[in-house]
Design goal:
This protein is an alpha+beta fold. Helix content is 36%, strand content 19%. It has helices at residues 39-44, 48-60, 91-98, 102-121, 167-170, 178-193, 201-210, 219-222, 232-241, 252-257; strands at 4-5, 8-17, 20-27, 30-38, 69-74, 78-84, 134-137, 140-143. The strands form 2 sheets. The chain has a 6-stranded antiparallel β-sheet with strand order 1-2-3-4-6-5. Helix 4 runs antiparallel to helix 6 (178-193). It is globular and about 55 Å long. Bound molecules: adenosine-5'-triphosphate (ATP) and magnesium ion (2 copies). Adenosine-5'-triphosphate is lined by residues 14-19, 22, 33, 35, 67, 83-86, 90, 135, 145, 147, 149. ATP binds at residue 44. This is Serine/Threonine kinase domain protein. Monomer. It comes from Tetrahymena thermophila (strain SB210).
Length: 267
């Protein structure tokens, strides 16, 4: 019902979230994505804290591989987040459409990994990392959706099923940076095989509870007939990421220092 706000001209809708809509917008010949969040709905659901967090976190992040927030303003009923416009959709759609080969999957993985350098410098956990929350702009992959805007992100009261959630979140334990690393592993697995390593969270929890040793067997999911083609390098990587005990899981630091990826980049 309106076509402009604070100098931004609004164009077509790009997508819908749980608490509002995202529009393409222009100002001074530059293109943006503006997320409009329904304030009364946020108040009704008592989620102010998550929305404030989304703004606070996004403001701090300024690297190539995270979606930039340029400004945020509000009127009586709407909070506007003016973001970098990502013109090539989500990683989820990209995977299904392009079926990337292992080399490309690893290169995308490394881009996302780079985004995490600054995220960790600023002491942020994402906790909702999945292909539909990674956007693409001119071939660059960018981490998005920092809201923790859903109760599941609390860790103590997660709801729904997520194929990407670390076991310590599913078990409602205290968690740290390692939860995002687990999700990264699931994302890489999903990119390569286009299926999930752990079919559902209930089953994953059962498996954890039945195990006496803290290491989950990642090879089990790789023995599936569809999942035979995967380099030894990546098998090794999955083995080091899908470790139930987060203290024994590979760290981001170790991942940055590993030479597992060097063969995927030409000199
Ligand atoms: P919620 O905020 O409740 O988690 P959501 O995750 O679906 O909902 P967003 O991911 O923030 O909400 O946005 C909804 C959709 O709008 C996205 O899936 C995407 O298609 C589009 N969109 C959001 N931000 C951008 C952006 N910066 N550039 C291009 N498209 C975007
Ligand atoms: Mg999202
Ligand atoms: Mg969101």
């Amino acid at each position: 019902s309106f076509t402009s706000v604070q100098g931004y001209t609004l164009h077509e809708i790009l997508g819908k979230g749980s608490f509002g809509q995202v529009f393409k917008a222009t100002k001074n010949n530059k293109v943006y994505a503006i997320k409009m969040i329904d304030k009364p709905l946020i108040r009704k659901k008592n989620l102010q804290k998550y929305v404030n967090n989304e703004v606070k976190v996004m403001r701090e992040l300024k690297n190539q591989n995270t979606v930039r927030l340029y400004e945020a303003f509000e009127d009586k009923d709407i909070l506007y987040l003016v973001m970098e416009y990502c013109n090539q959709g989500t990683l989820f759609n990209y995977i299904l459409k392009n079926k990337p080969e292992e080399t490309e999957c690893v290169r995308i993985f490394v881009q996302i990994l780079k985004g995490f350098i600054e995220i960790h410098e600023k002491h942020i956990l994402h906790r909702d990392l999945k292909p539909s929350n990674i956007f693409i702009k001119d071939g660059v992959f960018k981490i998005a959706d920092f809201g923790l805007a859903k109760p599941k992100a609390l860790g103590s009261s997660y709801c729904g099923t997520s194929y990407f959630m670390a076991p310590e979140i599913l078990q409602k334990k205290l968690h740290d940076y390692k939860v995002d690393l687990w999700s990264m592993g699931v994302i890489l697995f999903f990119m390569i095989f286009r299926e999930y390593p752990f079919k559902n969270s209930a089953k994953l929890l059962d498996e954890i509870q039945q195990k006496t040793n803290p290491y989950f067997d990642p090879y089990k999911c790789l023995k599936h007939p569809k999942n035979t083609q995967c380099s030894p390098n990546l098998l090794e990587l999955f083995k080091r990421i899908f470790v139930i005990d987060p203290t024994k899981r590979i760290s981001f630091k170790e991942l940055y220092d590993t030479d597992l990826f060097s063969g995927y980049f030409s000199a």
